[in-house]
Specification:
Blueprint lengths: L2 E4 L5 E4 L10 E6 L9 E6 L14 E3 L6 E5 L5 E5 L10 E4 L11 E4 L4 E5 L5 E6 L6 E7 L5 E7 L4 E6 L5 E6 L7 E7 L11 E5 L4 E6 L4 E5 L4 E6 L2 E6 L5 E4 L7 E2 L7 E4 L6 E4 L1
Antiparallel strand pairs: 1-2, 2-3, 3-4, 5-6, 6-7, 7-8, 9-10, 10-11, 11-12, 13-14, 14-15, 15-16, 17-18, 18-19, 20-21, 21-24, 22-23, 22-25
Amino acid sequence: MNLVGVADDGQIYVCNLTLNGTTTPFKVYRWFDESPEQTPTVVWEGDPGNGNAQRWGDTLAVRGADLNTQILVASRSGTVVALIMPEINRNQPIAVLTVPGAAGGDLGLGLSWGEGDTFWATAIGRPLRQVAFDPSTGQVQTLHTINLFPMIANIGVDPSRRLLAGVARGTQDTLRLYDVSNPGQPVFLDTEFFATDNANDNATGAAVFAPDGRLFALNSNNGLLAMRVGPRLRWSLSGTRLTLSWDPGFVLQSAPAVTGPYQDVPGATSGWTVDVSAGTQFFQLR
């Protein structure tokens, strides 16, 4: 067993590693939940490349629930990504997607679902790509190719909050967080360091966002990071009107000085506007 992914309904999927899907089948196992009495079942077994001899199992991205569970796997050294839906077909991929403009190995270490029928993919020393596809026709379009992060190998994306996290190799291995509201120009937000910096020659790892705002990252041989991503206050200015927007579940506060005291803004909801000519104010979320 090589990688783990969890669907939206909490079911756990685990895959093996095969060096050639045409000779040794790629397998996906499922646990209904994490309780110790659960035993896994094989829910998919076959060749994700549908005859295209590739190595599979270095990436696994899972989303959806029940009949609509969707699994993406990328070839380690090729340019193809397979879409698997175990409840629809347990032996054949739903689609085999060839990513235009990609070179062999470009997609092989970092793979994550994006918004709708899109995904993000990369590998160490390779560009980061945002890709769109049509699952019914197999048509694929590369939306963005970003050459800013050559040392990022493993990625996770939170489409609802427009965040991307990547495990980066370097003098000190780190987890980097980006705002991808504008996918073609990610904005750097933060860096966190792993406690150790042991060799990870295969550049294996993972980054996963949880629905409650937490972020987990694995860097093989260097352990796990677990953290909570704070709320982000976005703004735009038109004339003297400042518009503030934020993610659900948070409350806007204001103060006359940056040091506070901060108080809740009565009736404020995302999209709140302020006249900046009325005087200095500072804002935060709680």
